[in-house]
Predict the 3D structure of the following.
Amino acid sequence: MSEVRVGVIGAGNWGKNVVRTFHSLGALAAVAEADVALHPALAAEYPGVPLHADYRSLLADEAITAVVVATPAPTHGQIARDALLAGKDVLVEKPITLASAEAETLVALARERGRILMVGHLLLFQPAIQWLKAYLDGGALGRVVSLHQERLNLGRARAVENALWSLGVHDVAVLLYLMGGQEPCRVEATGHCVLQPSVADDVYLHLHFSDGTQAHLHTSWLWPEKCRRLTVVGSAGMLVYDEVAQTVTLHKKRIASDLQQWDEGSEVLFRGSGEPLMLEAAHFLEGVRSRMPSPLIDGMRGAEVVRVLEQAASGGKGGDDAGSLAGPDGATPGAGG
């Protein structure tokens, strides 16, 4: 097929990074941004690139073969649907939608129209995550017992999204990926509202899998230190992925069946490199060229992530804060669907 021409819809806080990335890859054909106050800066940085105030006029351009949706999460479903109906291949930022039923409808529509649909689960493109997946699948850590993720900082508090929906979507995608796409058989969650009565600032998510493995995620923007870490406990050792340092360290520690401790030290096995957004964008472009669905970030994988978040919202054991685990639209994701 001819060279892919990409239109980016949304050039705000995150979208501006997406615009810059596709421009650097030589694929940027147009930008749609509803806030026209941003247009002069965009025009200065990307001279000659058409700017649209309404995304629908971008979709009407038949020369554009694919679009990236980088708008606020509540708008993802409608814009992605309009793009697919306009005959475009679509990369939609995480989460794909706020309800799994809507995500599954998009997957079916993409299949019906013969379009590529991918989801921007950026963390899957960190080289360390790919290395971790291969290492675990190779059995070097023995049987995986548990996975523990932390995404903590004194960060930017949201007025609508809770800490799980805002910070933890990528981490849930990673957990499901490392578990081979296996969905949890039980989901539990607790949330603590501190700054506002209906938005959880601190959330613990617990996933139970049918093979006995458990996964745990702690997200918070009310934390004194920045911590982005994944710990994998196996029967033959433990791995720690430090996302800030981009290192994976093997701790040669375990407790044997006779309850004796074994500690043979630790060593750094992997040091990360590469830019995940650039890798993700290149992956999307290659998928559009080859017409092959992504094994990493296709639409159905995005729907699986949203299903876990829905279960956290509907089944979270948060006491008075139970409702605080709802989606960014203020309602329980999937309610009534």
Q: What stands out?
A: The longest strand covers residues 222-234. The radius of gyration is 21 Å.
